[in-house]
Amino acid sequence: MRRSYKAIRVMLMAALLVGSTAVAQAAGYKYGDKGGDIVDLQKKLVTYGYKARVNGEYDANTKWAVRLFQRDHHMEVDGITGPDTYKAIMGKPFNESRVGKITRMAKAKLDKEMADSRAAAAKRAASSKQGVGKKAVRKGSADDSLFSGIHRDPVDEDFKFAATTTMSKEVKSLLAVAEQYKGVPYVFGGTTPQGFDCSGYTRYVFAKAGINLPRMADEQYNVGKAVDKQHLQPGDLVFFETYEPGVSHSGIYIGNGRFISATSSRGVAIADLSGGYWGSRYIGAKRVM
């Protein structure tokens, strides 16, 4: 009888695991997924005028097509085809039997997309030296309505201002606010001192200085003036490529080769800009104040 109870318990746990996996898969399509009805999704995007490649892979191209669709339809812009986005594109709810069959794109292809994205970012950074990017969006801008919506690093020192006499009062105030939230835990989608994600943190800090940044890290990269790494000043936004091609992490440069950001491993923390995990993932910087 004891064995029978044990067997039943194992079967129940397995059923719960399968059920939870199906729910997780049914939550939506995201970068790196393959299969399901991604082909049908891509065909729909093409008919709407978005340049998605019809290949059955949720690659960077598809992600950006989805982001544009979300932006144009005043939805949360995250590049993920969740239930609401799926229904808006496809005109029907998820077909869970198809969503449950998704796999992952080949690692070699994901690595290549990442490498191509780094090369493109480097090219953009080089060309941007000849001109000035868009200005930071100030409070009250209509553009803001579009964006409402594991690693370890050895550096963990006390917050320090750069040793400079040219730092403005506004920058000092900005860095003081940034330091105030050191240690706040990381929360995916977090935008408040109860929990931040990377772009939620930078947006919150700059809002305190009267500068209203877009919600997502890659959109924040599109504002302000491009800055060479060797000419960084405290208060500059710094950007990195992490879990997917293109800008996916943002932080605030604080001087002396360090920056502060909301990280998934340590919450809001200080790290070395050029070494460790972040050095090889640095993409560029923008000055918005």
Automatic annotation (TrEMBL):
Signal sequence bounds: 1-26
Keyword Hydrolase set for record: yes
Gene3D superfamilies: endopeptidase domain like (from Nostoc punctiforme), PGBD-like superfamily/PGBD
Ranges for domain NlpC/P60: 168-289
Domain of life: Bacteria
Family: Belongs to the peptidase C40 family.
Name the UniProt record assigns to this protein: C40 family peptidase
Organism: Veillonella magna
